[in-house]
Amino acid sequence: MRVSKKLRSQSWFDPSLSPAWAANADGRPVIGIAQTGSDLVLENRHHLALAPALRAGIEEAGGIPLEFPVHPMGEGLRRPSAGLDRNLGYLGLVEILHGYPLDGVVLTTGSGQSTAAALMAAASVNIPAILLSCGPMLNSYWQGARKASSVLLLGARDGADKEDAGALRAAALPSAGHDNMMGAALAMNALSEGLGLMLPGGASIPAPLRARERMAYDTGRRAVALVEEDLRPSRILTRDAFINAIRLAAALGAPADCVPHLIAAARHMGVELTMADWRQSGNEVPLLVNCMPAGEYLAEDFHEAGGVPSVLAELIAAHLIAKNAQGVSGRTIGHDNAGRYAGRRDVIRTLTDPLRARPWQVAITGNFFESAVMTTGLVDEAFRRRHLSRPGAEGIWETRVVVFEGPEDYEARINDPALGIDEDCILVLRFVGPVGYPGAASLTSLQPPEALRARGLKALPVLSDAWDVGPAAPFAIHQVSPEAATGGYLAFLRDGDRLRIDMQTHRIDALVSEAQMLRRQRETRLLIHANQTPWQEIYRKTVGPVGTGACIETAMNYLDIVEARGQPRG
Count of alpha carbons within 13 Å of 185, Cβ hemisphere only? Predict the structure, then answer.
């Protein structure tokens, strides 16, 4: 394809300066392939196998594919936290998309962090861009029952069924692809589809299916067309699109990780999106998708039921979606998804018969923090009767705090009887946010003391500035912002303090006077772990609060880079 307008890449290909390149380009659009697949990132590795189909689609549509590596962004092997990698991956993508002769780009995605970085970079640079997921794994099973791959891997890692650890690992990885529950990977790709930056149906196709290869080919072809049409992220990632995504996240049962990721993408697009928008637009949308951890099914079932288009169809029918939002297909979200109702109502429910009347996650506030995300979906009837059913105070729980200064302190002291931990307590883990950890921890193995577990209590509520505190029951409060390491009042809670948790108004207050908090602020020395690499120091100096997306704050000065800043010198 030779496009009718001058291509951005042509300024690199002056025949007098680059005769070989000029002859080969010959007016055809150059499409970058941001390759996130590698041996370090299991979630994205399948992109190495999908690349030939993607390249073929670009070439057959008349484009020139140029594939380049992206900094790895995966949860499995990265220490201390993959949260460090999202902003670093974003920076690398911005430099490549701006500094090389690319007219458009296919951003390959899989893990939640890589998908978020792709959205952020596409928004900042604002050249024609489209996302391609590697797809989820097939369903995984253990002893005849569906079990999420990440749950099986945790079981193998943490010593459960030690004699079966090898079998657990094998069962956890039934095929190529990212995690098969509605975790950060599947949810962030689903939200990218809902935003309009991925072709319809592109989030849920399992990695090994032939349809996934076809999606790669179609994405390559469409990337070339985006350049011809000059369809850029700024026409797609509007405020309406982000509000659509918030409502879709609630219907999906998307995890807490998705909240700062979407806020970050919006900020890089210059769109105002706040935690207040999550409270206003997401807190009242029912949970429709019956997928783990909120439900009983996995990604393969979700795909068979209709995937993201079928969830959007339900929301469109209820007038909860801005139908005129644009997508990379060249059509509106309404055109692509209206009427595509689920083929399996056991997996994707209706608004009149939801899995839960309220969302799996809700945005909350309180008197010792500005914002946080609370997972309420595992509040069971026994917990409700014991803590949330006092006459005149239904839905309100007053609880005693037990504080741990991060995961190491938790491991060392959780079984200390002197702490007096019982089922009326809430565990507080702090100094594990973006600055404190650094990169924000994902704490997935928190358990009550052994004495309580011996009595059958499997988990206690948790409150933390961590990115995610995993499948804690009966509920968890994540991403408390401002975090402890930056002087947020979370740093000044002490053992024995009481919290008032109101499940109806989505508010948590510390029953500690302002004067006491200020005195503790003067007396407390914040716990800051030493930097171990140059990037950790840079990250800590530049990252903003998780409540505003945990972005590199100076990056907010660099929006719409290609148009606002022009071509690079040279």
Answer: 32
